[in-house]
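Example 3.
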Amino acid sequence: MRIVDWIVFFAFLAYVVWDGVRRRDSAKNLEGYYAGSRSIPWWAAGLSIMATQASAITIIGTTGQGHEHGMDFVQTYFGLPFAMVLLCIFLVPFFRSRAVLTPYELLEDRFGPATRTLASLIFLASRCLALGAVIYAPAVALSAMIGLQTWESVVVIGVLTTGYTVIGGVSAVIWTDVKQMTVILLGLVLVLFFLLRDLLPVFDFGQVLDLAGAAGKLNALEVEPEHAGLWPRTLAEVASGTGQPSFWEEKYNLWAGLFGGLFLHLSYFGCDHSQAQRLLTSKDVDASRKSLLMSAFAKVPMQAFVLLLGVLMWLFYAVHGQPLLYKATQVEAAASAEFAPAVAEIQARFDVALAERRQNMEALAALPGGPSSDAAALARYQESVRNVQAIRKEARTLVGGEVDGNGVPKDVADTNDIFCRFILDQMPPVLLGLIIAAIFAAAMSSIDSVLNALSGATVVDIYKRWLRPDCSEREALRVGRGLTLFWGAVATYMALSFAGGGSIVEQINKIGSFFYGSLLGIFALALFVPRAGALAGALGLIGGMASVLVVHNVYKVEFLWYNVIGCVGVLAVGGAVALFERRRA
Amino acid sequence: MAASPPPAAPNRPPLGSWPRTYLLVCVLAVAVMAVLFWFSSHFNVRMPKS
């Protein structure tokens, strides 16, 4: 990085920290610290909801996902607009029915203190586990870009974000999120500009789409599932190679996105306090609804745009020469005496494969009737695309340094390193600093929200509820600030111990999916099963978690469906217990 | 006599009513999916399994 990039980067960081710290006056009591005194404008709360979800993962992980696997990931978000509408109709009025600081408080009214505490603990556990990955992603990026160790980057991000969140509370979180979201969008548009600047002199836009599509990268909507079987395979069948793959094993298709995604987003935006907290900060029900609907309008197009950036990045490298390895540690290992001879041989084959792919690409682009007009040319192109992928995988497996349970070297994916490599190599001065700032903005905007929410749930649902019910407002606020600091330290520690292989964006969704369905189920039980009481609530919540655990350990089912299983598990167990429970007064 | 502050603007639903707003969200969501479906079926070719 050049000096001007450093100046831009540090100027942005300093501005964000200052902007957060100056909100301290609005955090004089618990209402101010955790609910922004219910005076946050709806559009600011809406941008904050988007910024919290659009973490560094959106920039780094999703572009990498687009580069490696195409646009199929966008289908995960198809259920989101419908989820937002359902939340606006059912959950927002419930949350705003009285002035609560966490949604779990409302569960006590229906099911008693045990269920409230259990739900709050589930939130604390799930968010705490995922937070490590949220910090880890930008830390890896920073390490690759400016030569810090990953742990040093983790500490920088953790300390800065914790600092302004401790002081400014949720107002600091929301108003810094507004600025961070602006920088994120600006950064993404700049990357699009530079990709098109380098691609369009070589191919026109129609050819760009044809070539990406012919490589299977524009798979934005898959109606027909690859596997039609509805009975899931057991893990034992998978291990022994028997049984047929089922519909439930497919991660990304229209149906998984619509139904699994619906439940994921109902749970995430409605029952995860790091998001639901925004719904408590606006002045009334209507303002909360408006803030939610911002994401309903914007999220799917935005996600498609970010994935398309990744696809264009893949094409950029296909045209201008692709590195064999993207991950800095793998590049370093490849140059070592241990691997250099083997890597040199792989590199020679890779160079031939790249040249073949380029040649087949040009032949395909020259077809006047498009790629499908010459089946043989299309097959040659697809074969050469697959060949390049296979050689990259071979190199990653060789130098990755990780083995599976049987001691066989395994592929260490570099999905999260592709974007970083691109901007380091291609961005001009000043803009490089701005885009690295955007990655940081994305990370900080997600972490700050979660820290404030974790602290809020701990103070309101644990400390004030069980440990010190009579504590003064002043004491609770002091403890709240201390707990924000504590959770910041825990998050930093989790990030330091995070083993981040694969796609980070998937890791986050997977962790959440273990818990979210059950949280959604308990709120659904509260709203739609009037006769369910304390025992039904507690056993239902435990039943939902157990259902996910059993399915995870017995069947091969993709993580999106865990949200459905958890929710249905709570409703089934809770509903059944409610039948035998004495009717509520 | 000091002038009283103006009353806060009420938060009206974006299209005059919430059901109409929800309908718009759902219609737009389906429209975006339809565009993506056209995009995929027009440009994308599934890679054969190796």
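Chain B touches chain A through 26 residues (CB under 8 Å). The radius of gyration of chain B is 23 Å.
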